[in-house]
Structure formats: structure tokens, C-alpha cells
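Can't paste images in this forum, so I'm doing it all in text. The chain is below; anyone willing to post the predicted C-alpha cells underneath?
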Amino acid sequence: MSFVEYSDLIQEGDVAVVYLGPESMMPVKVKKGAQTQTRYGVIRHSSDLIGRRYGSKVTCSKGGWVYVLHMTPELWTVNLPHRTQILYTTDIATITMMLELKPGSVVCESGTGSGSLSHAILRSIAPSGHLHTVEFHQQRAEKAEEEFREHGVERLVTVRNQDVCKDGFGVTGVADAVFLDIPSPWEAVGHAKAAMKRQGGRVCSFSPCIEQVQKTCEAFVDHGFEELSTLEVLLRVHDVRTVYLPLPDFDAAGEAPPQTPVALKTTTLPREMPGHTGYLTFATKPRT
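Text version of the structure:
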């Protein structure tokens, strides 16, 4: 099982998703003899999971049922253990598109954090690309490396425990793209440029505060980067529902039989909408 390669059958050692509903799911490490407790009862790994097809409907001990899904970067993002604040799919999709990531790309990332973006990058660059990710905090770096092994992507990623602002990414002249998610990204712009290939590439910096963006843009200009742009992604999800509208009675004498209401699909706006997450600043390294 791997986050970047699909498997049909659930095997021991896999990290699967037990799906109870859109707002209720959990990652499970499949192991012979193990059990997972849900509100619908117990799932026995040996009899209920191992050897079954991903997507199967599994009946729990109390008679309720769940689906067991193959893990993806999107499902990992909503289920991962939070060691830091993470990036979510709305921003991740924009980042991977604007950095022009594709199979074979070499990417440098700092910091690794909880690995939400890292897994999405790995799927984009597989099977022949490589991610060099840097994490300042030793325990977080070690945990991220452990998760990459469990998820079957260790061959695609190198984790370094160091200060990117002082020591850089540990590579020179190899990266097609660089991503920065650190408190002082302007201090790492020079290292980002050094890590990138001579033929140019794209860099992205994520910052929650506009003052950070201003300093980072100044650093991009000082280091000769071009095509600077800053954006923020705001998502508004519409709720699709069915409404029933009665037909008007145009019979003046009132003798017409009552009409069956017409069912229509419509959408309603959410009462609350997630707002600002952070600013995404992109820049291009000119070809040298």
C-alpha cells in the first residue's frame, strides 16, 4: 500500500480510512489480531479488513456498517495528527498547480510540519520525482520520516532536521520548485534560489500576515526573482437541496383538482464561511 500507488486489496500494514460519514472518519493501521472500536461496534482486522477490497462495506459487531477506503493525500489531510497548523486542500491545490508540479519534479519544502502538503507533493511528483523537506523541530522531523515509511513513499522523500534560514535545504542546483512555510521566509529566499536549477523554476511562500508578505517580496526582488504575485484562496460551498413549490390554481371556479407540488433543486449559501487562511506569494527564478 502506498499513498501514490493504488492497491485493490487491504493488507496487513496498510493505513486505511474507516469512513463513518463526511464528518466522521479515522485512519487505522491494519494489523492481524487487532480491533478498532467505532460507535457502530468493533471492526476485527483479521476477519473484517485483511483481504477485503478497498471501498468495501464492513458490518461492525453492533450491526452498523462503515466503508473502508484507500488512503489519499486529501483523506490524510482531514485525518492526520496535528503537530502544527496545516495546509488544507483548497490552498494545496493552488500551490501544486502554480508551482507546475508534475511526475519527475524535484521539490524543496520547509517546514515539513504535519506533512499535509508533503503527501500531496509526493503524489504529484511520483514515480520519479523527489521531495527534499526540511523541519527545524527534531521530534516533528522524526515523526514525519516515520509516517513517510509507513505510507510507502520513503523512496521519494528526504527529511532533514535543520534550520533552513541558516543551513538551507542541503542541496544545490536541483530543485524545480521550492515551497516556504516558515515564520521568516525572507531569510530563506537566498537558500531557495541556491537550491533551484539554473534553468529557472517557481517558488511559493505561505504567510498568514501581510507584513510577512511585504518582506518576502522585497527579498524576492533583491535576489532577482520575477513575476511576483500574491493571492489568497477563499472557498464558499453551496448546499444543494430539494424544495417543493406548489403550482398556482388558475381555475376561477375553483373546480380544478389540487396540483402536486413541483420538486426543484436549489442551493443555499452557508451561514458561516471560512475566511482568510494565508497569503500565497509566487515568484519565478529567471533562467541563468
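The two ends are 41 Å apart (CA to CA). The mean pLDDT is 93.
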